[in-house]
Amino acid sequence: MWGLLAVAALFIGGIGLYNRLVKLREQADAAWADIDVQLKRRYDLIPNLVETVKGYAAHENKTLEAVVAARSSAMSAKSPAEQGRAEGMLTGALKSLFALSEAYPDLKAAGGFQDLQATLAKMEDSIQNARRYYNAVVRDLNTKIHQVPSNLIANSFNFREREFFEVPEGEKAVPNVSFSDGTPN
Q: What is the CATH code for 17-171?
């Protein structure tokens, strides 16, 4: 009788652990989808930003091409690690693009450019919040996968660790932009 109760308790406990792992996996999937939506909105805004800058600084092709190339790279990234690296490159390219406004007062004063810049800043905040939430859920999932006794259930049902969405340390640096002679380097 006691043995049967012990087996039943283990079975019920196993079901509880399995359900917790499933819940965390689903939360991680939903959190990644939120990041994907925010990034898509950002990617859709970038061509408008590039076109606005082109009107004022048409000879800044190198900077504009870098933004377009970084956007393409970010859009084609598959894993969170690839996405993090690509987003770091895109952020750096956008900083260089915004730095152009210092060299072109007409661009800086343009309402359309200011609106796009403000919208992009709001999107950056949304992306950062979505990234934090995703990474928190991934941390909880990965911890649960390694904790005893849930690791037994995780291994039995093929639950796998998730990658964090991080921008590599070396790509967080602000690009060096100089306007010593009135034109960006």
A: 1.20.1440.20
